[in-house]
Amino acid sequence: MKITIIGSGYVGLTTGVCLSHLGHHVVCVDNDVEKIRLLKKGISPIYEPGLEELLKQGMEKGTLSFTDSIEEGTKHGLAIFICVGTPPREDGGADLSSIELVATRIAETMDEYKLIIEKSTVPVQTGLKLKTTIELNNKRGIEFDVASNPEFLREGSAIKDFLYPDRIVIGVENERAEKLMREIYEKIDAPFIVTNIQSAEIIKHASNSFLAMKISYINAVSMVCEKAGADVKEVALGMGLDHRIGKEFLNAGIGFGGFCFPKDLKAFIKISEDLGYHMNLLKEVLKINQEIREYFINKVRDLLWNIKGKKIAILGLSFKPNTDDIREAPSIYIIKHLLKEDAYISVYDPAAMKKMKRIFPDIDYKENPYDTLVDANALLILTEWEEFRNLDLERVKNLMKTPIIVDGRNIFEPEEMERLGFIYRGIGRA
Ligand code: UGA
After folding, report:
1. What is the distance in A from the centroid of ligand 1 to the CA of 59?
2. pLDDT at residue 92 is higher than 90
3. Known catalytic residues?
4. For 121-131, what is each residue's pLDDT tens digit?
5. Do 408 and 262 fall within a single domain?
6. How many structural domains does the chain have?
7. Domain CATH code at residue 158
8. Which protein residue's CA is at the shortest distance from atom 1 of ligand 1?
9. Ligand 1 centroid, distance to 154 Cα (angstroms)
10. Residue 97, domain extent
């Protein structure tokens, strides 16, 4: 099928590249000329395992191309995915002006039937607004349908999540749109949930919020575990083996970050409020996410007594492993705090240092984990990169001034660390 993707960010680019991999003829559009220039050279502007390879393959096969012209994109696709950004506004709601702009341009340009699909994460009822906007600007009365097809991919495993999803959700208003949506995904083997547009939109809100709630829940439990002499890792396993609960997203740590959970939660709280329901449950989820970071800093303070003048090594800056994304990363909050208390900070991250330098140009960035540790008073682990699990711990201990480790992601076992001579604190582990 001829498909157009408007907005070549994380979701858009992954969608375009994967759909071309599945055999569709895809044109990706973006108004960022520099991004399009890179993409045309086969270079991915984002760090995502496997993406650049599929990008190059698609371009070589001739099933994937790029343009900065919405008009060109609209003419090409029978199906047009809208994947533009929906950044948060001051009040927590989502800024949907890019979607409106794109919808208007499509309506003005289309000259035959189009299926217009919202894939950006949007507040419920955006689909209806999208339809009204297109109707208003569709002066020539061209036929079209609108659909919602929320995306559940995660950064760092985006390609796998797209090609092997747990489910595909589509919200449609008629059989014509459903048939086309099924055709787009016919090569993907996954349960297909067909519902109305509003339900599809809420499935996305409710799924992300539920996952964030699971994380805050286990983080709240972790604080009790610590006080009670229990081990949250074992508690999570004991809970997670109940298939009604599930093991995933029960890793206690310093909380969730990234561009999705914090923003989506706030947007769901806001839209629920606008619709007349106060989602206090989700406000608490956000509050716990903040509390757990403060709890972590207090732990560092307890062990170091005075933070002022101490050398603190930090391993891990990205909001999670396998990405260079630092948006809403707990590391930003923690570094800010430590700097306020006049700590000397030395950091290493396999992918995110370039981005972090823009926020903290004056902290000490090192080329490898060991260089951060020379004469350090404490080591903080903020992201669970695989590389850190395989550290030579004897070497780590010998490099440090005092062998204190505060592990925000529970990558080591307390007993083993103590046996090796570290003063070690994880999260929720007595
Ligand atoms: C999340 C969802 O998982 C995707 O399904 C969704 O498509 C995406 O948002 C989106 O809306 O675009 P993502 O933000 O890439 O994906 O990252 P996750 O892997 O979900 O992790 C989010 C945060 O939760 C990370 O900071 C991670 O460290 C934290 N986390 C995750 C925990 O603290 N504990 C866990 O057990 C799991």
Report:
1. 30
2. no
3. 260
4. 898 999 999 99
5. yes
6. 2
7. 3.40.50.720
8. 154
9. 6
10. 2-195
